[in-house]
Amino acid sequence: MSQLSPSELVLNPDGSIYHLHLRPEHIADTILTVGDPNRVPLVSQYFDQLEFEISKREFITHTGWLGNKRLTVISTGIGTDNIDIVLNELDALVNIDLKNREIRPQKKQLNFIRVGTTGGLQSRHSVGTMISSAMTIGLDNLLHYYPYQAEERAVKLEQAFTAGFPDLPTTVYTASPDLSLLQRITGDWARGITLSAPGFYAPQGRSLRLGSRLSPQLLDAFARFKFEDLNITNYEMETSALFGLSHMLGHRATSCSVILANRADGTFSADPGGDVDRLIRTVLDAVMML
User: Quick one: how far is CA 107 from the chain centroid?
Assistant: First the structure.
């Protein structure tokens, strides 16, 4: 078995993985991802025991115990480019022998649960609504750099969306969550298709001093789009990469969000901290049943 070179598998002097500064024993099999580093302690405050914590760049990791469940919460920062780093390095911790630089023949499967905030596109989903991502459309370009092959249902979504919106300024890809994990974590939540954008402003149709090629009329058309029984419900910046990379690497992933901004009616949450805390507690309650 060939060894991975130091330029491909980059390690720190203490043997930890380069960006996350983690070693295999530092992470649990179930990992909650949050974008904001300040949200990590908002999750881990509910742990009964905090076993390990470390910080490097925007990546903060806490691992501990909630009852008899060992959990890790890690901040990814914003964007699919950061998800690329986090997912690949977490996978390397469990599926590559870091000492010998060899890929392990037997692969380990991790559970990834995104706990995030989002913008809603449907007027029926008021701010504070918790949304689960039943499918995702990537408006970023990350998975185009990988030998990614979407599942059949995701391919059909891509075909339908591309046919409906042929003049988008980017080539999209689509991905799906682990359906079992989605159902066990989010149950009867509102659910729909999540758009993942490579930015907060123009890529999500916002205009301040610079205009966006995504007009308000196009956002309205996104909201009217339907695939099977699913509408496009929300806009954010990480889920497409989380689902696509997890699928390729053999992990399970789902994405749970709370709507802080409703793009359809122009409203923003009056209590974003309270909404995020309610999301965290709801997800942790569900995780205990895994």
Answer: 22
Phi/psi region, residue 268 (left: phi>0; alpha: psi -120 to 50; beta: rest), is beta
**First CA to last CA distance, the chain:** 35
Is residue 269 classed as helix, strand or coil in its secondary structure?
coil
Helices (H), the chain: 40-44, 80-95, 152-164, 179-186, 216-224, 239-249, 272-287
The C-alpha atoms of residue 116 and residue 237 are separated, in whole angstroms, by 10
d(C-alpha 3, C-alpha 204), whole Å:
42
The helix (run of H) or strand (run of E) holding residue 119 is strand 111-120
Confidence label for 1 from pLDDT (cuts 50, 70 and 90): low
Structure token pair of residue 99: 């000492």
Residue range 69-73: average pLDDT?
98
**pLDDT at residue 250, rounded to an integer:** 98
Q: For residue range 244-277, what is the model confidence (pLDDT) as tens digits?
A: 999 999 999 999 999 999 999 999 999 999 999 9
Tokens of 241: 């990469």
Q: Return the structure tokens found at 36.
A: 């904001």
The domains of the chain are located at: 24-287
Structure tokens at 61: 């990791």
Q: Which residue type sits at 223? A: A
High-pLDDT (> 70) share of the chain, %: 100
In our burial notation (b when 16+ CB lie closer than 10 A, e otherwise), range 65-98 reads: ebeebbbbbbbbbbbbbbbbbbbebbbbbbbbeb
Which two tokens mark 162? 């591309």
Cβ atoms of 81 and 19 closer than 8 Å = no
CATH superfamily entry for domain 24-287: Nucleoside phosphorylase domain (3.40.50.1580)
Residues 6+ apart with CB under 8 A from 41: 62
If one counts every other C-beta atom within 10 angstroms of the C-beta of residue 205, the result is: 22
- pTM above threshold 0.85: yes
